[in-house]
Amino acid sequence: MKSISFKLDENKVVNTSAWLVSLIQFANNLNFFDVFKSFNLKMKSVNYTNLNRLQTLVTSIAMGYSYTNDINEKLVPDTTASKLLGMGKFPDQSQINRFLNRFDETNIDQLEFIHHTLFMENSLALSSKDPIIVDFDMSGLVAGGRTYELAEKGYFPGKRGEKGYQLSAAFIGSTAETVSMFFDPGNTSCTSRFEDLLKATTFKFKEHLDKDNLIIRADSGYRSFDNIQLLKAAGAKFVVKGFSTQQSRNFAKSVQKHQWQKINIQVHVAEVPTSTDLRIIVCEFIGKDGQIKYSHLLTNIKAEEMNGVELFHFYNKRQTIEAFFKTCKEVYDIKNLRTSKFYGIYGFLWLVFITHNLIILMKSTTFSSSKLQDMDIQTLVKKLGSITVRVIELKDHIEIVLPSLSELVKLFVEALQPKYTQLGFHDLLNTA
Protein backbone atom coordinates (compact mmCIF):
# COMPACT_ATOMS: atom_id res chain seq x y z
CA MET A 1 0.00 0.00 0.00
CA LYS A 2 1.35 3.45 -0.91
CA SER A 3 2.25 5.76 1.92
CA ILE A 4 0.58 9.16 2.31
CA SER A 5 2.34 12.38 3.29
CA PHE A 6 0.98 15.86 4.04
CA LYS A 7 2.56 19.27 3.40
CA LEU A 8 1.57 22.91 3.12
CA ASP A 9 0.88 24.38 -0.32
CA GLU A 10 3.69 26.81 -1.05
CA ASN A 11 1.90 28.26 -4.09
CA LYS A 12 -0.51 30.23 -1.89
CA VAL A 13 -3.52 29.25 -3.94
CA VAL A 14 -6.58 31.25 -2.87
CA ASN A 15 -10.01 29.63 -2.73
CA THR A 16 -13.43 31.23 -2.47
CA SER A 17 -17.12 30.57 -3.00
CA ALA A 18 -18.26 31.48 -6.50
CA TRP A 19 -21.76 32.02 -5.16
CA LEU A 20 -20.54 34.51 -2.57
CA VAL A 21 -18.26 36.56 -4.82
CA SER A 22 -20.93 36.73 -7.52
CA LEU A 23 -23.49 38.00 -4.99
CA ILE A 24 -21.03 40.57 -3.62
CA GLN A 25 -20.25 41.74 -7.14
CA PHE A 26 -23.97 42.04 -7.84
CA ALA A 27 -24.43 44.06 -4.63
CA ASN A 28 -21.50 46.32 -5.49
CA ASN A 29 -22.93 47.02 -8.94
CA LEU A 30 -26.16 48.11 -7.24
CA ASN A 31 -24.30 50.27 -4.69
CA PHE A 32 -26.25 48.09 -2.30
CA PHE A 33 -24.08 48.81 0.73
CA ASP A 34 -24.12 52.60 0.39
CA VAL A 35 -27.22 52.98 2.56
CA PHE A 36 -25.55 50.87 5.29
CA LYS A 37 -23.12 53.74 5.87
CA SER A 38 -25.90 55.55 7.75
CA PHE A 39 -25.83 52.88 10.46
CA ASN A 40 -24.45 54.34 13.68
CA LEU A 41 -23.26 52.31 16.64
CA LYS A 42 -20.59 53.32 19.15
CA MET A 43 -17.81 50.80 18.73
CA LYS A 44 -14.11 51.30 18.08
CA SER A 45 -13.20 51.20 14.41
CA VAL A 46 -9.47 50.49 14.51
CA ASN A 47 -9.45 47.88 11.74
CA TYR A 48 -13.13 47.60 10.87
CA THR A 49 -16.04 49.98 10.54
CA ASN A 50 -19.70 49.34 11.32
CA LEU A 51 -20.19 48.97 7.57
CA ASN A 52 -17.58 46.17 7.48
CA ARG A 53 -19.31 44.36 10.33
CA LEU A 54 -22.71 44.63 8.66
CA GLN A 55 -21.21 43.39 5.38
CA THR A 56 -19.75 40.42 7.23
CA LEU A 57 -23.12 39.52 8.71
CA VAL A 58 -24.84 39.86 5.32
CA THR A 59 -22.28 37.59 3.65
CA SER A 60 -22.54 35.01 6.46
CA ILE A 61 -26.33 34.95 5.99
CA ALA A 62 -25.97 34.64 2.21
CA MET A 63 -23.74 31.62 2.78
CA GLY A 64 -26.26 29.97 5.12
CA TYR A 65 -23.92 29.82 8.11
CA SER A 66 -25.60 28.45 11.22
CA TYR A 67 -23.44 30.07 13.88
CA THR A 68 -21.17 33.09 14.26
CA ASN A 69 -18.18 30.79 14.78
CA ASP A 70 -18.61 29.75 11.12
CA ILE A 71 -17.26 33.21 10.32
CA ASN A 72 -13.85 32.26 11.71
CA GLU A 73 -13.73 28.86 10.06
CA LYS A 74 -15.24 29.62 6.67
CA LEU A 75 -15.44 33.36 6.01
CA VAL A 76 -12.22 34.81 7.41
CA PRO A 77 -10.00 32.65 5.13
CA ASP A 78 -11.89 33.94 2.05
CA THR A 79 -9.74 36.96 1.23
CA THR A 80 -11.15 37.23 -2.31
CA ALA A 81 -14.63 37.95 -1.00
CA SER A 82 -13.34 40.33 1.66
CA LYS A 83 -11.27 42.31 -0.87
CA LEU A 84 -14.38 42.85 -2.99
CA LEU A 85 -15.84 44.61 0.06
CA GLY A 86 -12.70 46.68 0.67
CA MET A 87 -11.36 44.59 3.55
CA GLY A 88 -8.07 42.71 3.77
CA LYS A 89 -9.98 39.98 5.57
CA PHE A 90 -13.29 39.66 7.36
CA PRO A 91 -13.53 40.52 11.08
CA ASP A 92 -13.58 37.48 13.33
CA GLN A 93 -16.41 35.98 15.32
CA SER A 94 -15.58 37.75 18.59
CA GLN A 95 -15.86 41.18 17.01
CA ILE A 96 -19.18 40.29 15.37
CA ASN A 97 -20.52 38.99 18.69
CA ARG A 98 -19.60 42.24 20.46
CA PHE A 99 -21.20 44.17 17.61
CA LEU A 100 -24.53 42.35 17.88
CA ASN A 101 -24.53 42.57 21.67
CA ARG A 102 -24.37 46.37 21.50
CA PHE A 103 -27.46 46.80 19.33
CA ASP A 104 -30.21 48.93 20.85
CA GLU A 105 -33.65 50.14 19.78
CA THR A 106 -32.13 52.97 17.72
CA ASN A 107 -30.12 50.48 15.69
CA ILE A 108 -33.27 48.49 14.95
CA ASP A 109 -34.89 51.65 13.58
CA GLN A 110 -31.80 52.21 11.43
CA LEU A 111 -31.94 48.70 10.00
CA GLU A 112 -35.66 49.09 9.30
CA PHE A 113 -34.79 52.27 7.39
CA ILE A 114 -32.08 50.43 5.43
CA HIS A 115 -34.52 47.65 4.52
CA HIS A 116 -37.17 50.18 3.49
CA THR A 117 -34.74 52.23 1.39
CA LEU A 118 -33.42 49.20 -0.47
CA PHE A 119 -36.96 47.91 -0.99
CA MET A 120 -38.17 51.18 -2.48
CA GLU A 121 -35.12 51.36 -4.76
CA ASN A 122 -35.07 47.75 -5.95
CA SER A 123 -38.38 45.99 -5.31
CA LEU A 124 -39.69 43.83 -8.14
CA ALA A 125 -43.25 44.18 -6.84
CA LEU A 126 -43.30 47.98 -6.88
CA SER A 127 -42.95 48.06 -10.65
CA SER A 128 -45.62 45.40 -11.20
CA LYS A 129 -48.96 46.39 -12.67
CA ASP A 130 -50.57 43.21 -11.37
CA PRO A 131 -52.38 43.19 -8.01
CA ILE A 132 -49.93 43.03 -5.12
CA ILE A 133 -50.80 40.32 -2.62
CA VAL A 134 -49.14 40.67 0.79
CA ASP A 135 -49.39 37.91 3.39
CA PHE A 136 -49.20 38.51 7.14
CA ASP A 137 -48.09 35.75 9.48
CA MET A 138 -46.19 35.01 12.69
CA SER A 139 -43.66 32.29 13.51
CA GLY A 140 -42.10 31.35 16.83
CA LEU A 141 -38.40 31.07 17.65
CA VAL A 142 -37.53 28.96 20.68
CA ALA A 143 -34.77 30.27 22.96
CA GLY A 144 -33.38 27.23 24.73
CA GLY A 145 -30.24 26.38 26.68
CA ARG A 146 -29.48 29.67 28.42
CA THR A 147 -31.05 32.92 29.54
CA TYR A 148 -32.21 35.01 26.61
CA GLU A 149 -33.25 38.61 27.09
CA LEU A 150 -37.05 39.17 27.03
CA ALA A 151 -37.75 35.55 26.08
CA GLU A 152 -41.19 34.46 27.30
CA LYS A 153 -43.36 31.36 27.23
CA GLY A 154 -45.69 31.29 24.25
CA TYR A 155 -47.13 29.14 21.50
CA PHE A 156 -44.36 27.09 19.87
CA PRO A 157 -45.67 24.01 18.01
CA GLY A 158 -44.09 20.86 19.42
CA LYS A 159 -42.25 22.88 22.08
CA ARG A 160 -44.83 23.25 24.81
CA GLY A 161 -43.70 25.22 27.83
CA GLU A 162 -40.60 26.62 26.13
CA LYS A 163 -39.58 30.26 26.16
CA GLY A 164 -38.81 32.24 23.05
CA TYR A 165 -39.87 34.96 20.66
CA GLN A 166 -42.43 35.70 17.94
CA LEU A 167 -41.41 36.93 14.48
CA SER A 168 -44.14 38.78 12.56
CA ALA A 169 -43.70 39.31 8.83
CA ALA A 170 -45.31 40.81 5.76
CA PHE A 171 -44.31 38.94 2.60
CA ILE A 172 -45.10 39.06 -1.14
CA GLY A 173 -45.48 35.52 -2.45
CA SER A 174 -45.42 36.36 -6.16
CA THR A 175 -41.97 37.95 -5.98
CA ALA A 176 -40.78 36.27 -2.73
CA GLU A 177 -39.84 39.66 -1.24
CA THR A 178 -39.94 40.66 2.41
CA VAL A 179 -42.00 43.80 3.11
CA SER A 180 -41.56 44.28 6.84
CA MET A 181 -41.02 42.47 10.13
CA PHE A 182 -41.39 42.84 13.88
CA PHE A 183 -39.86 40.84 16.72
CA ASP A 184 -41.43 40.33 20.14
CA PRO A 185 -41.33 38.17 23.28
CA GLY A 186 -42.94 34.76 22.95
CA ASN A 187 -46.17 35.66 24.75
CA THR A 188 -47.07 38.31 22.12
CA SER A 189 -50.23 37.60 20.11
CA CYS A 190 -50.08 37.96 16.34
CA THR A 191 -52.99 40.38 16.26
CA SER A 192 -51.05 42.91 18.36
CA ARG A 193 -48.70 43.49 15.39
CA PHE A 194 -51.40 43.63 12.74
CA GLU A 195 -51.64 47.42 12.64
CA ASP A 196 -47.85 47.78 12.40
CA LEU A 197 -47.65 45.31 9.49
CA LEU A 198 -50.55 47.05 7.77
CA LYS A 199 -48.98 50.51 8.12
CA ALA A 200 -45.62 49.30 6.81
CA THR A 201 -47.30 47.61 3.84
CA THR A 202 -49.63 50.44 2.83
CA PHE A 203 -46.77 52.94 3.18
CA LYS A 204 -44.69 51.01 0.65
CA PHE A 205 -47.58 50.32 -1.71
CA LYS A 206 -49.42 53.63 -1.57
CA GLU A 207 -49.76 53.84 -5.35
CA HIS A 208 -51.15 50.30 -5.58
CA LEU A 209 -53.53 51.09 -2.73
CA ASP A 210 -54.77 54.21 -4.51
CA LYS A 211 -55.42 52.12 -7.63
CA ASP A 212 -57.32 49.47 -5.63
CA ASN A 213 -54.53 47.05 -6.49
CA LEU A 214 -53.37 45.86 -3.05
CA ILE A 215 -54.69 42.72 -1.34
CA ILE A 216 -53.90 41.65 2.23
CA ARG A 217 -54.15 37.97 3.06
CA ALA A 218 -54.09 36.73 6.69
CA ASP A 219 -55.00 33.67 8.73
CA SER A 220 -57.52 33.36 11.54
CA GLY A 221 -55.15 34.73 14.18
CA TYR A 222 -55.59 38.19 12.68
CA ARG A 223 -59.38 38.01 12.39
CA SER A 224 -60.67 40.48 14.95
CA PHE A 225 -63.28 43.20 14.62
CA ASP A 226 -60.64 45.89 15.17
CA ASN A 227 -58.36 44.47 12.48
CA ILE A 228 -61.19 44.25 9.96
CA GLN A 229 -61.98 47.88 10.68
CA LEU A 230 -58.30 48.80 10.17
CA LEU A 231 -58.33 47.07 6.79
CA LYS A 232 -61.47 48.91 5.77
CA ALA A 233 -60.07 52.25 6.91
CA ALA A 234 -56.86 51.63 4.96
CA GLY A 235 -58.87 50.98 1.81
CA ALA A 236 -57.17 47.67 1.09
CA LYS A 237 -58.78 44.57 -0.34
CA PHE A 238 -58.43 41.57 1.94
CA VAL A 239 -59.14 37.91 2.58
CA VAL A 240 -59.00 36.81 6.21
CA LYS A 241 -59.83 33.39 7.65
CA GLY A 242 -62.53 33.41 10.32
CA PHE A 243 -61.46 32.56 13.87
CA SER A 244 -64.51 30.80 15.32
CA THR A 245 -65.16 27.23 14.11
CA GLN A 246 -68.54 27.37 15.85
CA GLN A 247 -69.44 30.38 13.74
CA SER A 248 -68.30 28.41 10.66
CA ARG A 249 -70.67 25.56 11.60
CA ASN A 250 -73.51 28.02 12.07
CA PHE A 251 -72.89 29.50 8.62
CA ALA A 252 -72.86 26.00 7.12
CA LYS A 253 -76.33 25.27 8.53
CA SER A 254 -77.82 27.90 6.22
CA VAL A 255 -76.32 26.30 3.10
CA GLN A 256 -78.60 24.08 1.01
CA LYS A 257 -77.15 20.85 -0.35
CA HIS A 258 -77.24 22.04 -3.97
CA GLN A 259 -75.38 25.26 -3.06
CA TRP A 260 -72.13 23.51 -2.15
CA GLN A 261 -69.47 23.76 -4.85
CA LYS A 262 -66.96 20.94 -5.16
CA ILE A 263 -63.25 21.67 -4.77
CA ASN A 264 -62.38 17.96 -4.58
CA ILE A 265 -63.90 14.83 -3.07
CA GLN A 266 -63.11 16.05 0.46
CA VAL A 267 -63.68 19.81 0.19
CA HIS A 268 -66.72 21.92 -0.72
CA VAL A 269 -67.39 25.67 -0.48
CA ALA A 270 -70.42 27.91 -0.57
CA GLU A 271 -71.10 31.63 -0.24
CA VAL A 272 -73.37 32.65 2.61
CA PRO A 273 -75.70 35.64 2.19
CA THR A 274 -74.91 38.46 4.60
CA SER A 275 -76.34 41.86 5.48
CA THR A 276 -72.86 43.33 6.01
CA ASP A 277 -70.50 44.78 3.40
CA LEU A 278 -68.33 41.64 3.62
CA ARG A 279 -68.68 38.37 1.77
CA ILE A 280 -68.55 35.11 3.70
CA ILE A 281 -67.27 31.90 2.10
CA VAL A 282 -67.85 28.78 4.20
CA CYS A 283 -65.77 25.66 3.64
CA GLU A 284 -66.76 22.07 4.46
CA PHE A 285 -63.91 19.54 4.61
CA ILE A 286 -62.87 16.19 6.05
CA GLY A 287 -60.44 16.62 8.96
CA LYS A 288 -57.49 14.40 9.81
CA ASP A 289 -59.72 12.49 12.22
CA GLY A 290 -62.17 11.69 9.40
CA GLN A 291 -64.85 14.03 10.78
CA ILE A 292 -66.57 16.80 8.80
CA LYS A 293 -65.27 20.21 9.82
CA TYR A 294 -65.96 23.81 8.79
CA SER A 295 -64.06 27.05 8.35
CA HIS A 296 -64.89 30.35 6.67
CA LEU A 297 -63.30 33.29 4.90
CA LEU A 298 -64.16 36.99 5.17
CA THR A 299 -63.44 39.26 2.23
CA ASN A 300 -64.36 42.55 0.61
CA ILE A 301 -63.32 41.34 -2.85
CA LYS A 302 -66.31 41.53 -5.17
CA ALA A 303 -67.88 38.38 -6.61
CA GLU A 304 -67.18 39.48 -10.18
CA GLU A 305 -63.45 39.51 -9.32
CA MET A 306 -63.34 36.16 -7.51
CA ASN A 307 -66.09 33.61 -6.91
CA GLY A 308 -66.15 31.32 -3.88
CA VAL A 309 -64.04 28.58 -5.45
CA GLU A 310 -61.45 31.08 -6.67
CA LEU A 311 -61.28 32.68 -3.22
CA PHE A 312 -60.68 29.28 -1.63
CA HIS A 313 -57.70 28.64 -3.91
CA PHE A 314 -56.51 32.23 -3.58
CA TYR A 315 -56.40 32.06 0.21
CA ASN A 316 -54.52 28.75 0.20
CA LYS A 317 -51.72 30.34 -1.81
CA ARG A 318 -50.64 32.10 1.39
CA GLN A 319 -48.53 28.99 1.95
CA THR A 320 -45.76 31.04 0.34
CA ILE A 321 -45.16 32.93 3.59
CA GLU A 322 -45.07 29.64 5.48
CA ALA A 323 -42.44 28.44 3.00
CA PHE A 324 -40.50 31.66 3.59
CA PHE A 325 -40.42 31.07 7.35
CA LYS A 326 -39.17 27.55 6.62
CA THR A 327 -36.40 29.01 4.44
CA CYS A 328 -35.44 31.41 7.24
CA LYS A 329 -35.13 28.54 9.71
CA GLU A 330 -33.56 25.88 7.50
CA VAL A 331 -31.41 27.93 5.09
CA TYR A 332 -30.59 31.15 6.98
CA ASP A 333 -30.75 29.22 10.27
CA ILE A 334 -32.51 31.91 12.30
CA LYS A 335 -33.56 29.19 14.74
CA ASN A 336 -29.97 29.30 15.98
CA LEU A 337 -30.06 32.62 17.80
CA ARG A 338 -26.76 34.47 17.31
CA THR A 339 -26.82 36.26 20.66
CA SER A 340 -28.78 36.28 23.92
CA LYS A 341 -29.46 40.01 23.60
CA PHE A 342 -32.97 40.90 22.37
CA TYR A 343 -31.96 43.76 20.08
CA GLY A 344 -29.02 41.75 18.75
CA ILE A 345 -31.39 39.00 17.62
CA TYR A 346 -33.83 41.60 16.27
CA GLY A 347 -31.08 43.30 14.26
CA PHE A 348 -29.80 40.00 12.88
CA LEU A 349 -33.31 39.17 11.66
CA TRP A 350 -33.54 42.52 9.86
CA LEU A 351 -30.29 41.62 8.11
CA VAL A 352 -31.79 38.26 7.11
CA PHE A 353 -34.77 40.04 5.55
CA ILE A 354 -32.44 42.47 3.76
CA THR A 355 -30.13 39.71 2.50
CA HIS A 356 -33.05 37.60 1.33
CA ASN A 357 -34.34 40.43 -0.86
CA LEU A 358 -30.85 40.85 -2.35
CA ILE A 359 -30.71 37.16 -3.29
CA ILE A 360 -34.22 37.31 -4.77
CA LEU A 361 -33.26 40.37 -6.82
CA MET A 362 -30.17 38.59 -8.18
CA LYS A 363 -32.25 35.53 -9.06
CA SER A 364 -34.75 37.67 -10.95
CA THR A 365 -32.22 39.81 -12.83
CA THR A 366 -28.81 38.18 -13.25
CA PHE A 367 -30.37 34.72 -13.58
CA SER A 368 -33.46 35.90 -15.49
CA SER A 369 -32.64 33.93 -18.65
CA SER A 370 -31.29 30.90 -16.78
CA LYS A 371 -32.87 27.89 -15.10
CA LEU A 372 -31.31 29.21 -11.90
CA GLN A 373 -34.13 31.76 -11.67
CA ASP A 374 -36.55 28.99 -10.76
CA MET A 375 -34.27 27.25 -8.28
CA ASP A 376 -35.08 27.47 -4.60
CA ILE A 377 -32.95 29.46 -2.15
CA GLN A 378 -31.71 26.31 -0.45
CA THR A 379 -30.15 25.00 -3.66
CA LEU A 380 -28.36 28.29 -4.33
CA VAL A 381 -27.15 28.91 -0.79
CA LYS A 382 -26.45 25.42 0.52
CA LYS A 383 -25.42 23.56 -2.64
CA LEU A 384 -23.91 26.21 -4.87
CA GLY A 385 -22.48 28.13 -1.91
CA SER A 386 -20.66 25.06 -0.62
CA ILE A 387 -18.67 24.60 -3.85
CA THR A 388 -15.10 25.84 -3.29
CA VAL A 389 -13.43 27.32 -6.36
CA ARG A 390 -9.93 28.41 -7.33
CA VAL A 391 -9.02 32.08 -7.69
CA ILE A 392 -6.55 33.38 -10.26
CA GLU A 393 -5.74 37.07 -9.77
CA LEU A 394 -4.66 38.72 -13.03
CA LYS A 395 -3.67 42.32 -13.64
CA ASP A 396 -7.05 43.55 -14.84
CA HIS A 397 -9.49 41.10 -13.33
CA ILE A 398 -10.01 38.01 -11.21
CA GLU A 399 -10.73 34.59 -12.70
CA ILE A 400 -12.89 32.19 -10.73
CA VAL A 401 -12.28 28.62 -11.87
CA LEU A 402 -15.05 26.17 -11.01
CA PRO A 403 -14.88 22.37 -11.18
CA SER A 404 -17.24 20.94 -13.79
CA LEU A 405 -18.84 18.63 -11.30
CA SER A 406 -22.51 19.13 -11.97
CA GLU A 407 -25.17 20.66 -14.15
CA LEU A 408 -25.70 23.26 -11.43
CA VAL A 409 -22.16 24.61 -11.81
CA LYS A 410 -22.45 24.74 -15.60
CA LEU A 411 -25.73 26.64 -15.37
CA PHE A 412 -24.13 29.05 -12.91
CA VAL A 413 -21.15 29.77 -15.17
CA GLU A 414 -23.36 30.23 -18.23
CA ALA A 415 -25.64 32.63 -16.33
CA LEU A 416 -22.77 34.81 -15.11
CA GLN A 417 -20.28 34.96 -17.98
CA PRO A 418 -22.15 37.46 -20.19
CA LYS A 419 -22.84 39.82 -17.27
CA TYR A 420 -19.55 40.11 -15.40
CA THR A 421 -16.47 41.94 -16.64
CA GLN A 422 -14.34 42.42 -13.52
CA LEU A 423 -14.75 38.81 -12.47
CA GLY A 424 -14.24 36.00 -14.94
CA PHE A 425 -16.09 32.74 -14.27
CA HIS A 426 -14.81 29.61 -15.96
CA ASP A 427 -15.19 25.89 -15.38
CA LEU A 428 -12.20 23.54 -15.42
CA LEU A 429 -13.20 21.85 -18.66
CA ASN A 430 -13.15 25.16 -20.49
CA THR A 431 -9.81 26.27 -19.07
CA ALA A 432 -7.94 23.01 -19.33
Q: Mind telling me the C-alpha Rg?
A: 25 Å
Spans of 5+ residues with little confidence (pLDDT < 50)? 7-11, 428-432
Shape: globular
Please summarize the sheet with the most strands: 10 strands, mixed
The portion of residues assigned to helices is 25-40%
Residues in β-strands, percent: 15-25%
User: Which secondary-structure class do the elements indicate?
Assistant: alpha+beta
Q: In total, how many beta strands?
A: 14
Span between termini: 31 Å
Give the helix tally: 16
Mean pLDDT: 88
| Order of helix and strand elements from N to C terminus | EHHHHHHEEEEHHEHEHEEEEHHHHEEHEH
Can you walk me through this structure?
The chain has helices at about 20-30, 50-60, 70-75, 80-85, 95-100, 105-120, 195-205, 205-210, 225-235, 245-255, 310-315, 320-330, 340-365, 375-385, 405-415, 430; strands spanning about 15, 130-140, 150-155, 165-170, 175-185, 215-220, 235-240, 260-265, 265-270, 280-285, 290-300, 390-395, 400, 425. It is α+β, with helices and mostly antiparallel strands and about 425 residues long. Among the domains are: about 15-105 and about 335-430, no CATH class; about 220-300, no CATH class. The strands form 2 sheets. Strands 2, 3, 4, 5, 6, 7, 8, 9, 10 and 11 form a 10-stranded mixed sheet that branches. It has a 4-stranded mixed sheet with strand order 1-12-13-14. β12 (about 390-395) and β13 form a beta hairpin. The protein is globular. The two termini are about 30 Å apart.
Topology (elements, then pairings):
Layout: E1 14-17, H1 18-30, H2 50-62, H3 69-75, H4 79-84, H5 93-101, H6 105-122, E2 132-142, E3 152-153, E4 163-172, E5 177-185, H7 194-204, H8 206-210, E6 214-218, H9 225-234, E7 237-241, H10 245-253, E8 261-264, E9 267-272, E10 279-286, E11 292-299, H11 308-316, H12 319-330, H13 342-365, H14 377-384, E12 388-393, E13 398-402, H15 407-416, E14 423-427, H16 428-431
